[in-house]
Amino acid sequence: MAVAKMSVAELEEFLRREFPQAFGPGSSTRIEHADGQTCRVREIFSERMLRPGGTVSGPTLMALADCAMYVVLLSAIGPVGLAVTTSLTINFLRKGAPGRDVLAEAKLLKLGKRLAVGEVTLLSGDSPDPIAHVTATYSIPNT
């Protein structure tokens, strides 16, 4: 089992400091769990998440998945701000319901010295049926 290099509190503080535009006051993103191998991130529902037709928009889902992947990676390697996404593939599986928070459950599949590969399952509220599945690769800089 992996040992987390950053706690949820440390991750939240790091993200508020390094990305105040996304994680500062009024942010609707919450880290619920991070253990160095997996994490769970919640995006609290807002009308801004919806696209015409009343479904959760693709950009909302992609941003949350990328955030969850970044969180799980940082929980595994520590505060490496310049780790960046090199690839993200998303499969939209079903409509995200309006009025429900979106949850991202991320898991590291492989953690190397320079690259990390993971997957993220996106869920709508308390439904067990995924609304999207994401695979992502991050580049880890020399530290």
Primary descriptors:
single chain; alpha+beta; two-stranded antiparallel sheet; 24% helix; 38% strand
Structure description:
The chain is 24% helix and 38% strand. The longest helix has 20 residues. A hairpin with a 3-residue loop joins strand 1 and strand 2. The two termini are 24 Å apart. The protein has a six-stranded antiparallel beta sheet. Strands 3-4 form a two-stranded antiparallel ribbon. By secondary structure, the protein is of the alpha+beta class. The relative contact order is 0.20. The chain is built from three helices and eight strands, in the order ααββββαββββ.
Question: What is the structure about, briefly put?
Answer:
With 143 residues, the protein is an alpha+beta fold. The chain has helices at 8-18, 20-23, 58-77, and strands at residues 29-34, 38-43, 50-51, 55-56, 84-92, 102-111, 115-124, 130-139. The chain contains 3 helices and 8 strands.
Query: What fraction strand?
Result: 35-45%
Give the biggest beta sheet: 6 strands, antiparallel
Overall 3D form = globular
Q: Stretches where pLDDT falls below 50 for ≥5 residues? A: none
Helical percentage: 10-25%
**What string, H for helix and E for strand, traces the elements in order?**
HHEEEEHEEEE
* Rg from Cα: 14 Å
**Record field, number of beta strands:** 8
Given helix and strand content, the structural type is alpha+beta
Q: Helical element count?
A: 3
